[in-house]
Amino acid sequence: MASWWLTTALFALSRCVAAQQERISPQNNTFNSSFSLSPSQISSANLNNVTANNVNIAIRFERTNWATGSVLTDPFYAPPLNASSAPSGSILKVEDYTDTTLYTLPPNVALSRIVYQSSTYRLDHANTPVPASAFILWPWHPRIDPATGKYAVVAWAHGTSGIFGECAPSHIRNLWYQYSAPFILALQGYVVVAPDYTGLGVDRWPNGTRIQHPAFNNPAHANDLFYAVEAAQMAYPDELSERFVVFGHSQGGGAAWGAAQRQARQPVEGYLGTIAASPVTDIPLQYRITPDVGWPIDLVPGLAATIPDFDTSDILTPEGARRYDLLAEIGGCASAYLQLYYQGELVKPGWATTPAMQEFQNLTGNGQRPISGPMLVLQGTGDVVISTNLTTHFVDETCALYPDSEIEYAAFEGADHVPTLFASQRIWLDWIAERFEGKSVKKGCGTKETYRPARRVGAYQKELGYYLEFATQSYEVA
Ligand SMILES: *[C@@H]1O[C@H](CO)[C@@H](O)[C@H](O)[C@H]1NC(C)=O
Ligand SMILES: *[C@@H]1O[C@H](CO)[C@@H](O)[C@H](O)[C@H]1NC(C)=O
Ligand SMILES: *[C@@H]1O[C@H](CO)[C@@H](O)[C@H](O)[C@H]1NC(C)=O
Ligand SMILES: *[C@@H]1O[C@H](CO)[C@@H](O)[C@H](O)[C@H]1NC(C)=O
Ligand SMILES: *[C@@H]1O[C@H](CO)[C@@H](O)[C@H](O)[C@H]1NC(C)=O
Ligand SMILES: *[C@@H]1O[C@H](CO)[C@@H](O)[C@H](O)[C@H]1NC(C)=O
Ligand SMILES: *[C@@H]1O[C@H](CO)[C@@H](O)[C@H](O)[C@H]1NC(C)=O
């Protein structure tokens, strides 16, 4: 006890005497974006004063949290000329050492960014290679995959950050999902390969033509996952294991489930399995259960990039279309989108049963299709975005049709959408470790487990009540 006290006191003292005394100040509001909608933007999108004010603040928040400025000015996101011709899975650009001081990473985690070639996934099968960006998080002390002697890799698929170029996690200071998963994976020794998804980050061809984000097109996101891993392995052949686990949440949970379905169609060597947390399965059905969640505007670029004859007016009202155009013009992401969505009638009643939406769901949906390899599905029963019923339904239906599927289903009592990742953290970490150890998964499709908390549900912190920002004052990092 005494020696502990003494060491601590000496440590504190040494910090005191070593540093020059400085005058300290309170930390100011760290918003330093001064974005403001122009009067013509406000009037053409028919925004009321409150919406305009809220959008301004949300955009300032988003821009303040860009690590490397706009993707339109950060040269990293400009694809090289060979982006028009290189095959899917090839590496186009490597930023080996990204400046970690621009991000709010945990200490002793390093960052790289890559531009690689993914592939589109369209109804007309006119699929082409398309450039996309990804980040790689490096642990200080990586786990070694016993099969290859190289670093164990997890491909991370993020939940919805927005639908335009600026919404790329790789240029957001906290990498968007921060301690909800990617930081934890890196701190637990996994090299995290995390695609931004096509159209986020790299959002134009070398000739300047826009690349749309195929939002909620699960097979397209699955392409991003597999090709980002392939390209990362090409960039770091001596470090990265050929074997990897896929893990995603929400939109990324849909991507992760889509990866298991892709693996059944188009097997990739080294794939060890997938974790689909709070996954998107069937958007029209989900919308019937939770009509307040703002799916339709988010779906526009996904439909446009997938269904050749889709027109925005299929699902949005003229007012909705103007709102979408404004969001595109100002590069608004998740925070701005929420503010824009709450005013007016933006969506056409029947949008979920339009031919375009039905074709999209039929082509890109999850469930009731074969999967390959082990899949763990995680779902919080208090999830207000993704219905437990729907996830259960698609696990059950997939098992009924394909009883040999290796699906495990774990539910977490009372846990909400992103917080499910915290309730389930031990489960997913163990599951990932077991895949690298070569342990076989539980027998029987759809083995279900419901986990209950040690204390009553209401005793737990329910939501994320923080976001990461820089400490600017010495006393804040004491
Ligand atoms: C905080 O804001 C005030 C007023 O804008 C400014 O004078 C001061 O320098 C700022 N302090 C810091 C630490 O940035
Ligand atoms: C905001 O501050 C960051 C550094 O903290 C700086 O890189 C960025 O350029 C600033 N942005 C504006 C709009 O002043
Ligand atoms: C909203 O109205 C108030 C009071 O009329 C005005 O001060 C403010 O600038 C307006 N905000 C926007 C974003 O137009
Ligand atoms: C720009 O390049 C892309 C990819 O090569 C091509 O699909 C598109 O048609 C080009 N756009 C124009 C305007 O040339
Ligand atoms: C594309 O060009 C970049 C240089 O601009 C090069 O580093 C990369 O290896 C090329 N990739 C392919 C697949 O040709
Ligand atoms: C759904 O997709 C299958 C092929 O995957 C196709 O045969 C069928 O016609 C599609 N149905 C609709 C309604 O688009
Ligand atoms: C989920 O299913 C249960 C039992 O079938 C039902 O009572 C409940 O209303 C459903 N909840 C939703 C959100 O559909």
Write the layout of secondary structure elements.
Elements: H1 2-18, H2 39-44, H3 49-64, E1 91-95, E2 109-119, E3 129-139, E4 144-145, E5 150-157, H4 182-187, E6 191-195, H5 218-235, E7 240-249, H6 251-265, E8 271-277, H7 283-289, H8 295-306, H9 318-330, H10 334-341, H11 355-364, E9 375-380, H12 388-401, E10 407-412, H13 420-423, H14 425-437, E11 447-451
Parallel strand pairs: 5-6, 5-7, 7-8, 8-9, 9-10, 10-11
Antiparallel strand pairs: 1-2, 2-3, 3-6, 4-5
The chain binds 2-acetamido-2-deoxy-beta-D-glucopyranose (7 copies).
One 2-acetamido-2-deoxy-beta-D-glucopyranose (NAG) binds next to loops.
Give an overview of the whole structure.
The chain is α/β, with parallel strands linked by helices and 478 residues long. It has a domain at 65-282 and 365-459: Rossmann fold (3-Layer(aba) Sandwich), CATH 3.40.50. It contains 14 helices and 11 strands. Strands 1, 2, 3, 4, 5, 6, 7, 8, 9, 10 and 11 form an 11-stranded mixed sheet that branches. Strand 9 (375-380), helix 12 (388-401) and strand 10 form a beta-alpha-beta unit. Helix 3 packs antiparallel against helix 10 and helix 5 (218-235) packs across helix 6 (251-265). The longest helix has 18 residues, at 218-235. The protein is globular and about 60 Å long. The model is unreliable at 1-17 (pLDDT under 50).
